[in-house]
Amino acid sequence: MSEPYQHRARKRFGQNFLHDAGVIHRILRAIHARDSEHLLEIGPGQGALTEGLLGSGAQLDVIELDLDLIPILKAKFADEPRFRLNQGDALKFDFNSLQAAPNSLRVVGNLPYNISTPLIFHLLNNAHLIRDMHFMLQKEVVERMAAGPGGGDWGRLSIMVQYHCQVEHLFNVGPGAFNPPPKVDSAIVRLVPHQVLPHPAKDHRLLERVVREAFNQRRKTLRNTLKALLPASEIEAAGVDGSLRPEQLDLAAFVRLADQLALQPEPTST
Ligand code: SAM
Predict the structure, then answer these.
(1) Is the pTM of this model over 0.90?
(2) Which domain holds residue 234?
(3) Which residues in the chain belong to E strands, given as ranges?
(4) What is the pLDDT of residues 186-243, one digit of tens each?
(5) Pocket test for ligand 1, best of 8, 16, 17 (most atoms within 8 A of CB)
(6) Do 165 and 234 belong to one domain?
(7) What is the pLDDT of residue 267?
């Protein structure tokens, strides 16, 4: 008899496959999927989470980039009518193609760490479709997402994720739960998009711009880091003390700065 196909984990696809049944069970319990739901799993790999997700009776779409994994996933799950396999890059995926009702999609993934931040930003652009997200990420990334103002973890990722979502750091997972083991600790995070934004900006792209500019040099005062965008007088007009450093400002203050920027005349092009 022929040997079953052994997939060799590929570094370039960020492949660290979960094999610890206890951890898999804990993740599935945290997600707590039900049969009426529509789930989307990003990077199903060899199906470590997929099987349990399908066991809930929910409809499950998966997006997998690695062509070599497609036959494995087909062999395991193609007979399942609630399973839909999408081959491709989750970073380029059009989530509207899933035809999910607004605020219904539950997104899940043990994400490839090399693309986790851009992927989460891509998902946040589709936040209106999403009910919640559960991700395995590098522990350090989860700490930055869940951080509050005042410390070194507070930055662009914390602010932009918390602008859109409530963030919960659920639990940590050590390298031994994966094959091959990653070099870093991991953690599970739950992100729930706000139904109503607590601090809506006039233009969220301006918020992104102010935050990026402010944290480009996080040791400097706002007056200095924002010089190219807002004069000191406009920072004060937003009710923000320009002598503070960016990490001392909360989300609401960054939104006030972005709204102040929205009032500025467009620079004339030459
Ligand atoms: N879910 C599986 C598990 O827990 O064992 C695999 C997790 S592994 C960390 C990440 C998975 O994402 C791999 O299957 C990898 O091939 C896939 N992947 C990597 N880049 C991707 C991308 N851009 N779009 C979709 N899947 C991707």
Answers:
(1) yes
(2) 204-262
(3) 17-18, 38-42, 59-64, 83-87, 105-110, 130-138, 165-173, 178-179, 186-193
(4) 999 999 999 999 999 999 999 999 999 999 998 999 999 999 999 999 999 999 999 9
(5) 17
(6) no
(7) 62
